[in-house]
């Protein structure tokens, strides 16, 4: 085959032989820009991705919103380490002492992501954000490390488990956190009892018959707080309940039906159930007391029921109570043998319950079912 000499080109010496400088350049590490969404996890990959957890436990922290402060600190720390945050988890109003890990949805999500290998590092503002239970939290932290997850705190660094000393320090940290939670709980309870002893309302569910109002009292932070006063409209219903119970022989269930027929409803615009009526009958606070645990303080301005009437109601309640939790003898029912026939298995009396619904018959009359 003839060769076209015009298209034949010879390579120069520089193309055939490389210099020592070129060979060293080829051995050096090269930097190449790759979009982050094109990177995929592989064994011993050099880039770091992490999840972050933020938690506040008290209502005051929720209202003040401490989480942005934790977020800013974690983001700045991650940036300084060259880490990429792939997911942030927040828990508001969740106690790391009172709630176990199984009851914390966000922590469960993080554990699931760890098992699926979705991140390398778990970062928190402080380690006690993971929990404050000395019998649980240290083992949760160790569990993460066994999944190949590094656990870091902005303020305390990395938690390691290389030696027995590391494990001991890990346990001591959460033992101290648990102790602090117990001390805080005791201090809070003691202060609330002191306020109750001084005749001040300290929060909680407002019993039927009262309402919260602002009377100018302020706390140590100079914030106005509420006090209890009698709600006269509801107080009349409370007096009616005690009168019917003591002087007319009404039981809690009969009272519930009677109030419903009279159009009296609770705060949720539904009928007042018999369980709520029983709580009213047992509530000593109606005689003019603020009660917080074992602390009782007399407050005459809160009296709705006279002490004598309250004591009569308690005597009747005790007399009507069955020995084994069955239906009281004072219960009236249209069902045959109600209160007279006993269960051969548990020993309780036969009782009749109602669904609370009303059925209208063909002749037009209505009856509860």
UniProtKB/TrEMBL annotation:
Lineage, uppermost ranks: Bacteria, Bacillati, Bacillota, Clostridia, Eubacteriales
SMART domains: Resolvase (SM00857)
Coiled coil residues, start to end: none
Protein name: Recombinase family protein
Gene3D superfamilies, alphabetized: Putative Large Serine Recombinase, Chain B, Domain 2, Resolvase, N-terminal catalytic domain
Recombinase domain boundaries: 207-323
InterPro entries (alphabetical): DNA_bind_recomb_sf, DNA_bind_recombinase_dom, Resolv_N, Resolvase-like_N_sf, SSR_resolvase
A Pfam family matched in the record: Resolvase
Organism, as annotated: Faecalibacterium wellingii
Domain Resolvase/invertase-type recombinase catalytic: 49-199
